[in-house]
Design brief:
Helix content of chain A is 75%, strand content 0%. Chain A is an all-alpha fold. Chain A has two domains: 85 residues, Rna Polymerase Sigma Factor, Chain: A, CATH 1.10.1740; 73 residues, Winged helix-like DNA-binding domain superfamily/Winged helix DNA-binding domain (Arc Repressor Mutant, subunit A, Orthogonal Bundle). In chain A, helix 7 crosses helix 10. The longest helix of chain A is centred in the last third of the chain and has 30 residues. Chain A starts with a helix and ends with a helix. The radius of gyration of chain B is 45 Å and the shape is rod-shaped. Chain B has two domains: 49 residues, no CATH class; 130 residues, 2-Layer Sandwich (Phosphorylase Kinase, domain 1). A seven-stranded antiparallel beta sheet of chain B has the order 1-2-3-4-7-6-5, sandwiched between helices. Classes of the chains: A mainly alpha, B alpha+beta. Chains A and B meet through helix 1, helix 2, helix 3, helix 7 and helix 8 of A and helix 1, helix 3 and helix 4 of B.
Chain lengths: 186, 248
């Protein structure tokens, strides 16, 4: 079995996590795809240096590095992607399609729930990358503190304090968003 | 437990990443502190909202793209002279080109420079010898006197001849200094002209045919033979200088 086949077998199952992290770091769909492709090629080339163990944090750490490099290039190019564009509905997207599967809550409650979630995601997207990434890794990817520490290359204590600060920051910003929405509604 | 200590643990507690003891202390504090309890509730809700948020849908084409890129990377992974990232290879190529260019230029200029310097040196030595009372240290027309005179003065034995019969009588010899080394200078006469023939060893040059270089009205004739380099300098015309070269 070639090394490529081995690599594909252990790395491709994490494609979804890699894509999600890349998207949340750069908040652009085409760029997230490019980053994932680049990261996988780099991971494959560096596969010989992989010391075994859990492949997911190792892979996500590479995705993160590529994404950060990409972000610094974008910063230099002064090319800012707007949040509106990043959150534009995709073709085939609809609130109903996404949420009707559970059937239980009323459509109104669903709509409110969807609105709240959209607001949380908007607030998350506006966080600095260092805060955003720990939240994405913890809440969306459900990684343990140890795994997050491996991905971001920091001690577990740092992961703990950064998550705490990220949640506090998210809470503050969300409060401000809600206040603004209510003012707009009036 | 104080509020600031509690706030540091709330986040970790909802992730289940605190010790049993700390979790107990936190619960105790929470029961008495509505503010911290509120923060915990907010954090919990945020966590649930994020967990239930719609994930980015993985585009189906991405897996195909990645597989293709990996296949290409595997094909390119053959051993090469310089391994590593593309920019490393580019850098190596650029460095190699620079190195070749620098070395080439250096070699050429060094060669050209040394040629020009030797021309200057032999001409200066010739002119200087004429400015003095006598261009010779040992005055003799006998090659068997002149040749031994060089023993111990230079580290080679120049071939000394006396073509007096052909009109180039040997006047004598002296030591001179050309191109940073001690050289033998043989002095011949042709009517009223003086000819300086500078000789030094050049073991790697091989035999080089004579080349006439006119400089400031003087004629310089250079050649190499039997591991020795000769420079004949005079105000004599080039044809007669070449005639002398044939006799030596």
């Amino acid at each position: 079995m070639s090394s490529r086949t081995t690599f594909e077998q252990i790395a491709l199952p994490h494609l979804d996590a890699a894509h999600n992290l890349a998207y949340w770091l750069v908040r652009s769909r085409p760029d997230a795809e490019d980053i994932v492709q680049d990261a996988y090629v780099r991971a494959f080339r560096g596969f010989a240096t992989f010391r075994g163990g859990d492949v997911k944090p190792w892979l996500l750490a590479i995705v993160r590095n590529v994404a950060y490099r990409w972000m610094s290039v974008r910063k230099r190019a002064n090319n800012v992607v707007s949040i509106d564009e990043a959150f534009a509905p995709r073709a085939g997207d609809s609130v109903g399609e996404a949420w009707l599967a559970s059937e239980e809550p009323s459509p109104e409650a669903l709509l409110i729930g969807a609105q709240e979630r959209a607001r949380v995601l908007t607030a998350l997207a506006a966080l600095p990358p260092a805060f955003r990434e720990v939240l994405v890794l913890r809440e969306l990817e459900e990684l343990s503190y140890n795994e997050i520490a491996d991905v971001i290359g920091a001690p577990v204590g740092t992961v703990m304090s950064r998550l705490s600060r990220s949640r506090a920051e998210l809470r503050t910003r969300l409060g401000a968003l809600i206040e603004k929405d209510e003012k707009d509604a009036v | 437990m104080q509020c600031d200590e509690a706030q540091g643990l709330i986040s970790a507690s909802i992730d289940g990443e605190v010790s049993e003891a700390s979790a107990g202390d936190l619960r105790q504090h929470m029961a008495a502190c509505p503010a911290c309890a509120g923060v915990q509730a907010d954090f919990r809700r945020l966590s649930q909202q994020l967990k239930s948020a719609e994930r980015e849908i993985l585009p189906a084409r991405l897996e195909t793209r990645v597989r293709q890129a990996l296949a290409q990377a595997a094909a390119e992974a053959r051993p090469t002279l310089v391994r590593g990232r593309p920019w490393v290879r580019q850098l190596a190529a650029v460095a190699a080109v620079c190195l070749i260019a620098v070395f080439g230029t250096w070699t050429i200029t060094r060669y050209v420079d040394s040629e020009a310097r030797i021309e200057q040196d032999v001409l200066s030595a010739h002119v200087r010898s004429l400015l003095q009372d006598s261009p010779i240290q040992v005055a003799s027309g006998d090659p068997h006197s002149v040749k031994p005179w060089f023993n111990g003065r230079v580290e080679f034995a120049p071939d000394v001849k006396d073509p007096a019969a052909e009109g180039f009588p040997l006047a004598g010899a002296r030591l001179d200094y050309v191109d940073g080394r001690r050289v033998a200078a043989l002095v011949y006469k042709r009517r009223l002209h003086t000819v300086n023939v500078f000789v030094w060893p050049s073991p790697h040059a091989g035999d080089i045919a004579a080349r006439l270089i006119p400089v400031k009205g003087y004629n310089l004739l250079t050649w190499s033979h039997n591991g020795l380099t000769y420079w004949a300098v005079s105000d004599l015309n080039g044809a007669e200088l070449q005639q002398l070269q044939a006799l030596l």
